Amino acid sequence: LQSETSSSTTLDLAFHWYQSCNTSHRLCNRMRSQKKSWMPSRLLDISSESENQWKLVVVSADNITPAPYFTLSYRWGSNQSLMLRRSTLCDFRRGQQISRLPQTFQDAVVIARRFSVRYLWIDALCIMQDCREDWEREIPAMQHIYSNSVCNLAASASENPNGGLFRTRDTTAIVPGVVAAPSAASTDKNHHIFDDSYWNRQISNGPLHRRGWVFQERLLSSRVLYFGKSQIFWECFTELKCEGFPQGILEHHSVKNLNPLWDLQESGQQEGQESDKMPIHLLRLWNNLVRDYSNCALTRADDKLPAFVGIANLFGEVTGDVYLAGMWRSSLLEQLNWWVDQPRCRISTTYRAPSWSWASLDGPIRPHHQAARTQFLVSITAVTTDHSSHDLAGTVSLHLRGSLTINTQLEQPLQAILYPDSLEIKLDASRPFYFLPLQTASYELLSDAASDHGDLDFHMEVSCLLLEAVLCAVPPIYRRVGHCVIDDEDDISMLGLCVVEDRLASVMSNSDIILI
């Protein structure tokens, strides 16, 4: 190992990983093989006659033939000055000095040329930053921009574009320690000593990967070459490597596991052709992605859905399902059952998603994983969508039928685990709100008293949405303000529900409501 990550030794190793994946990993080539001829609308051409220049090409106008290109993931920082604007378009088309680029962009040019890749896609230079119409055309294409890139370069250790990709490092801190087996041992194998948290410290928890936009860039790219603060890392759909473990990182698994999607895609069938519901393994994958994404930060709160649209488009293409404000039409009831994971969640001050969607909140959320035995206590009678503004932020309303109980009419306080959607919401007697029982989860538990006989105790919990009235209309209109879980039978009965064997029956009449 050399003391610089820009050394020939390091870059040769990276190129070896890239070539090996490109030639032998069927899974990693699967996404690109779907649209090999697809190209972004604009690219940076970095192989001009003058090695000191780059220029912006418009793929359709310049008749650019399909060719490999790299993408770049980086943090914008607060002083991103070099951008594609209406005023800079002509200058970029004529050509610019590479030395005027931020250091991270310059280093990306070095890597691309080293790998004999002529084109580079960087969002700040390929999307018109002062043109809303151009932004709305380009953002839905993120799925294809990253999935068709031959490799994504990630500036994992830099806080802004001036931080660069390369680092000086202490090589002794990278090489894993080796402990030789004692001469009297039963095995002669050596043992490696390594820090099993270094991947999370340098990559997953690093400055770059806290950024919301990077979540889908990492997931959609077949290959990612990370430039950390002490070494480079490689992640593809098949392998996870670094300089310390160039043959594969021990005890680590890539988060880029989209196998349920690939399996469905390879079968050539859309799930809607066989079932009305998204299969449980796909829904679990989606929920896990939503949970992880909700922990990321966005500079602009209204980017919540656009920064996830590439992943949504991929799911939609493979499943044939209908996407509604962060959820899927075939499994809306299941996906309504989520709660905030930390009290720091905030409700968006401007509309970007309906209150029943996780996308309406800024902060971590946790979707409910379906129990083996469950019962839905509401039904969806209609879904209305208004896309008059933009298809990423169209307003969606749910027409539901279920039983409502207002908190101010309860005989006594409920014993429930309450999850207000924000700390700004006070769920107490001073504020009227409604319980809408949504779903049950049933479990069979082996009690201490019955363990000698192998008997099972029956346990049930009920998840409820907490709503507040918005408009007295017919049907009335409500907004979600929280979530709660109730597991005491007496408390469950206070909501007009009674246990009949292992199911719940309502003793109250159901109401039609609209949830916005």
UniProtKB/TrEMBL annotation:
Heterokaryon incompatibility domain mapped to chain residues = 69-217
Membrane-spanning parts = none
Write down the Pfam families for this protein, in alphabetical order.
Answer: HET
Report the domain of life of the source organism: Eukaryota
Q: Which residues form a coiled coil?
A: none
Q: What is this protein called?
A: Heterokaryon incompatibility protein-domain-containing protein
Q: Which organism is it from?
A: Lasiosphaeris hirsuta
